[in-house]
Amino acid sequence: QNFIDLQNSDVNIHIIGVDSDLFFTAKENKETFKRLAQANGNVTYGEVHSLHGHDAFLIEFEQMERLLEPIFSTNGKSKQAKVLKFGGKSLANGEGLERVLDIISNKVKEGENIAVVLSARAKGTDQLEAILEKAANGENYYKDFEAFEKYQKHTFKNVNLSAEFKDLAKLLEGVSLLGDYSLKIKDQLLAFGELISAKLVTKLLIGKGIKAVMLDSRKLIKTDSNFGDASVNEALSKENVLRKFAKLEADEVPIITGFIASDEKGETTTLGRNGSNYSAALFANFLNAEELQNYTHVDGIYTANPDLVSDAKRISHLSYGEANELANFGATILHAKTIIPLLEKNIPLRILNTFNNDNEGTLISAKTEEGGIKSLSVIENVSLINVEGRGLLGKVGVDARIFSALQKSNISVSIISQGSSERGIGLVVNADQALEAKRALDREFESDYQSKDINMITVLDEVSVISIVGQDLSTFHRPYNSLIKNQIAPLLFNNTVSGKNVSLVLRKSDLNKALNVMHGQIFGISKKVNLVIFGHGNVGGTLIDQILKSTKTIQKRKGIDLNVFAVANSRKILLNKKGIPKNWKSAIEDKGIAYKVEDVIAYTKEHHLENLIIVDNTANSDFVAHYFEFVENGFDIVSSNKIANTLGFDYYQLLREELDKHQKQYLYETNVGAGLPLIDTIRLLHLSGENITGIKGVFSGSLSYIFNTFSESEEPFSNILRAAMKSGFTEPDPREDLSGNDVGRKLLILARELDLSNEFSDIHIENLIPEELRDGDVNHFLDNLDLVDAKFNEIKKNQKPGHVLRYVGDLHGNLQEEKGILDVKLVSVPKESALGQVKGSDSIIEIYTESYGENPLVIQGAGAGAAVTARGVFGDILRIAEKG
User: Which of 614, 582, 584, 583 is nearest to 597 (CA)?
Assistant: First the structure.
């Protein structure tokens, strides 16, 4: 039985614990006790007339605090007190510490009743642990110790920390001599972080006129002797805290050490890492605090770690249950045991930013808002253990043996996943316990190795766990598919029975990228799509400007954030993970660097860039060989370059197999018809089972312009060709257009969309260039255009009346067989026909199908021009971005 003596000016009460009830003896008269009881929610009691020679009253245990409230109210430490907890970064030298002192001072000046719980300053605990390891290993730790001492003492002249550092030095010297340390010694050493922090802040507050009192929590919080992660004796700790606080003066501000406690022998213990949050929650519970305010370096709890996900959003409110889930799944801002003491008393917890006065933080309370995904939490320092064995099939109790073996070694399992056959079992443990866990399992299954029931037990290090708190399995396919699209394959999958929390184990190298990919999908943040654009000539340059101009509009309308992180030509590349500037043309010359394709891929991995698209606006036959590398490394492809689709059929098929294997897309709508929706239309018709019987049309905008003009004009062909060159309708060497090869490639691309296996050599192409002008430089060709004039004047003269010249591609024959017939030639067609009526540089394509009969589906529009082609490439980019 425990005995507590509480006093104030009104009443002196003894509290004696008897089972679940309490006897209260009042040294004053019976009326005083009754007045206290009636003033506090009509506390019920039964009278006992002789206990220790005083009037005594029997009261239920849960009503005790209501009875005691006026005693604490008289002393100024009432239920309306707030507990403030400050983390290590908040207590760092400079701005942090000054803000902490200002926050405390302002609250005192405003008349608030507060108690303050402190962590070690800056990274004090980590530094002490590192120094301890050096001392135990016989390494020179003196420089680290001096650096730690210098930082902690800083320039605080009126704060004497000599005694603390003297004791700390003795401990380290002993460890260095022994070459080892116990967990008990480690707890004694780590405690100095909080002791120094509390002593310093107390002295600095006194210097500001605040009546601060340092409370060593080792004298208040009592635990078992499980050093390193002790369990709290809450009943005894509560009595200690209530007794101590009852003796504080109304204007005294307690400054309390977090994290540390003591066992029944008075030996220092600690409450586990991040234990200061737990300490603060315990004090809030014991004191019936109005609110626990946890001051840290961020504005609250976020939908993901803002250090890893730049788009993470602050969560304004969480329920206790949601916060507890976040804590259990690795949210470092909360200790896993923090929520329970607050939940018991319905005490709100508010996470605040020491460095932001205007921030409302995150409020954690009993209030439950609508369901839904709250946050992505991460546990980083873990390992995955795999137990594999065919002989385990059908055997009962394998998992029980695993847990029993690990329990004997005091190893906790955070996640376990197994198939129904039990042939393979995966479990996640702390990284520093992985080897010991394997040894324990090896011992347990030694006989199973011999009988070959167990094949192997392996440890995979460098893994992390991402937990989606609040995730419903019915919508989990979206973030999961995004991971697969970005070539991130989870190693292990686990969900709670409720199906509201999903955990994925993956390689640590994938963590950053995976978080960003999933976060965008889950929280509806604009999906970031990272583009690298090769080739910035007429089409490429226009495309870049179109994207930069439209980025904000697309983000608003589509929720897609297009980020051009790289622009390259054949010599240089401009890289910027946050996006190239508007003056990219000059920037690539001034800041561009020489590169290889491998450098681009390495850059995306280094910066964890997700949703990657390579845009090929070159006409380079060598560059398309790199498509395979890009696909293998997670890129989708958009291309205005026709070469990849017109190489050998083996290459064509192999590329598509690689795309299927990696679930990547390759779009090239502008390969035929610039910005016209031609390839997509043919693809959809073919996919739907429509029997396409033929495709015919004017595919070249350049030749369309030339022959449309020539057919209606008396000008010589050479003059029209020169005018077309001057207007930019042709390639710099117009023979590339006049050879017919470009039209042939376009026709071949359409044939292959119908699953025909034609090669380029199968195309019958009418070359419009006289043989004597096909070789030599372009100037030689231009100087001898009179030879061209004679040829075309003769062709024009021999036409039927009312006919015009068109250079067409014609795919025909039995298109249900392996190959079709491909003809590219100059023809004379009636002026009234669909082909005859095409104007300017427009393209026109007629698609003949079984369903349409003799009336073809006609697609007509601008078939050339940088702006039109760039817009078509842009459309392909958006199609991939939306689908992915």
Answer: 614
